Fold this sequence. Notes:
The protein has one domain. By secondary structure, the chain is mostly helical. The protein is flat and about 50 Å long. It has helices spanning about 5-30, 40-65, 75-95, 95-105, 110-135.
Amino acid sequence: xxxxxxxxxxxxxxxxxxxxxxxxxxxxxxxxxxxxxxxxxxxxxxxxxxxxxxxxxxxxxxxxxxxxxxxxxxxxxxxxxxxxxxxxxxxxxxxxxxxxxxxxxxxxxxxxxxxxxxxxxxxxxxxxxxxxxxxxxxx
Length: 139
């Protein structure tokens, strides 16, 4: 497994895990209160910050446990990354229609922010999935 592919796996797992923990915290805080009244900003910021740090630490940890032969990106890695980011960008653009619509409908900030966070996570998951499939099956 290449250095870049390991990084994609770490990013996928961390993104999904951080979002799952965020949802668990928010739903746990609801406890009979409408979701739009839950204090979501601190957990969201912590979730994003921890995800960034965990991705860096996770990538280093994976390299310590299972070192790659080379840390250089070859043309195949670059093409797979480009294609995965392209698909993720398309997904992101399409899904961002939801928070835009919520903002136009003057929905609570809770719903707009969570729709945006969900769009980022979906783009990350789809982009990572596309990259991993490309690593296994080729472009």
